[in-house]
From TrEMBL:
GO terms for molecular function: guanyl-nucleotide exchange factor activity. Residues 7-17 have a biased composition (Polar residues). Residues 1-37 are annotated as: Disordered. Residues 36-166 form the N-terminal Ras-GEF domain. Gene3D superfamilies: Ras guanine-nucleotide exchange factors catalytic domain (1.10.840.10), Son of sevenless (SoS) protein Chain: S domain 1 (1.20.870.10). This is RasGEF domain family, member 1C. InterPro entries: Ras-like_GEF, Ras-like_Gua-exchang_fac_N, Ras_G-nucl-exch_fac_CS, Ras_GEF_dom_sf, RASGEF_cat_dom, RASGEF_cat_dom_sf. GO terms for biological process: Ras protein signal transduction. Keywords: Guanine-nucleotide releasing factor. GO terms for cellular component: plasma membrane. The keyword Methyltransferase does not apply. SMART domains: RasGEF.
């Protein structure tokens, strides 16, 4: 079999990088047993931690580091894990002895710094607490006398870490928009609502701006969010979930999806004239198709969901004026049947294209997020269940890392389109109707055509319009 592939920093976890050929045997250390190739399907947590700890002649594979750091947080707090790793380094390299074996430490030092660098780069939020920095400075302080470069590298590592943490905390604040849906009080005056088509009437342009919005929001989601989002929800009580989730990035992103659904429905139900409503529908169908072509499946799904909301789908006379063939094709792509098998096929196609693409334009893959979350939720469940012998299910760790790693690769893509702030601002801030508001707008556009709708219309008018 060919040479072992090495993982460069740029392809940290591409989908294929978790089935690496075995690395060169390590002297006396489970010789040649690469944990990733023909990995044991399970191991004790202690064994897995031991595999993370570098020695003078062993360094864990990059993909293993990512896999273990990601999933181990289901069982041990990242801070505790760091403390154990540092403790094992000190013990095994005898760094607590008054006299160090300089030659040996010089072989070990760079590997330790490399591990700490990868950890702080990939999971910076693991280092938010002061105590974690204490572990780093302590262990590096012990090897520092053997080579003056070590303190220097440590300094750079901490600077980069602070920079990364600062960026992360900035990001989250800007995501909290004033997002209360407005209830419907007759048609909002034009001062409240300029319509979307007045700001952007080119579907191609809007699809590009939606892609901007998606990637801006995705940027704030770290790999650990996918594991921590679930630890809270008491589903894993058996493993004593061990920390609260500091970041609501996943929730903020799901909120954005919901906002987009409601924005689409609001824009369609607003216009008083049927011809105008039909034009808005056709516009969104074209936008959705452009999103599909770009690989932006999340916006695509939000647009389809918005057009399928009952206040919109009940507008029969408006739909009659729309060329719906294009819409049905898109709807078929996103059909939930067979656990979304059409969408999954399209996603694999986009993922494959992304791997071979040369331009960032061809690299864009924005998955339908709620479904990704659901898949990852089930993987977390199976990761968190220890096997009867108390072992951890490493096979499931690999699956989880593969899915999350692939997503992390996608979210890092630079958006190749120029941003138009007036359009993205509108997408983030334009008023949207609540569900009741949508029904009222819809009934005013096309009056109720059955008893149930008539009653609903009456009660909505008295409850909402009665208050004004």
């Amino acid at each position: 079999a060919g040479m072992p592939r090495t993982l460069s920093a740029s392809n940290m976890v591409t989908p294929g990088s978790l089935n690496l050929p075995p690395t060169e045997p390590i002297d006396g250390e489970q010789a040649g047993q690469s944990l990733l190739d023909g990995a044991p399907s399970s191991a004790s947590l202690d064994t897995l931690i031991q595999h993370l700890v570098p020695t003078a002649d062993y360094y864990p594979e990059k993909a293993y580091i990512f896999t273990f750091l990601l999933s181990s947080r289901l069982f041990i707090k990242p801070g505790e894990l760091l403390a154990r790793v540092c403790h094992l380094c000190i013990e095994q390299q005898q760094l607590d002895k008054p006299v160090l074996d300089k030659a040996r430490v010089r072989k070990f030092g760079p590997k330790l710094l490399q591990l700490l660098t990868e950890w702080t780069e990939t999971f910076p939020r693991d280092f938010q607490e002061e105590s974690t920095i204490g572990h780093l400075t302590d262990v590096v302080g012990r090897i520092a006398p053997c080579d003056e470069a070590y303190q220097n590298r440590m300094h750079q590592l901490l600077q980069a870490l602070h920079q990364r943490l600062a960026t992360l905390s900035q990001g989250t604040e800007s995501l909290v928009e004033a997002d209360k849906p407005i209830s419907y009080r007759t048609k909002p005056s034009t001062s409240i609502h300029r319509e979307l088509l007045g700001i952007c009437s080119d579907p191609y342009m809007l699809a590009q701006q939606l892609t901007h919005a998606e990637l801006d929001r995705l940027r704030h989601i770290g790999p650990e969010d996918f594991v921590q989002a679930f630890v809270r929800k008491d589903t894993l009580a058996s493993t004593k979930p061990c920390f609260n989730d500091k970041s609501n990035n996943v929730e903020a992103y799901v909120k954005w999806f919901n906002r987009l659904c409601y924005l689409v429905a609001t824009e369609i139900c607003m216009p008083a004239k049927k011809k105008q409503r039909a034009r808005v529908m056709e516009f969104f169908i074209d936008v959705a198709r452009e999103c599909f072509n770009i690989g932006n499946f999340n916006s695509l799904m939000a647009i389809i969901s918005g057009m399928n909301m009952s206040p919109v789908s009940r507008l029969k006379k408006t739909w009659a004026k729309v060329k719906t063939a294009k819409f049905f094709i898109l709807e078929h792509q996103m059909d939930p049947t067979g656990n979304f098998c059409n969408y999954r096929t399209a996603l694999r196609g986009a993922a494959h294209r992304s791997l071979t693409a040369h331009s960032s334009r061809g690299k864009i893959v924005i998955p339908f997020f709620s479904l990704l979350i659901k898949d990852i939720y089930f993987l977390n469940e199976s990761c968190a269940n220890r096997l009867p012998n108390g072992h951890v299910n490493f096979e499931k760790f690999l699956e989880l890392a593969k899915q999350v790693g692939e997503f992390i690769t996608w979210k890092e893509v630079e958006c190749p389109f120029e941003q138009d702030p007036s359009i993205t601002h509108y997408l983030y801030t334009a008023p949207i109707f609540s569900e009741d508001g949508l029904y009222l707008a819809s009934y005013e556009s096309e009056s109720p055509d059955n008893q149930m709708e008539k009653e609903r219309w009456r009660s909505l008018r008295s409850s909402i319009l009665g208050k004004t």
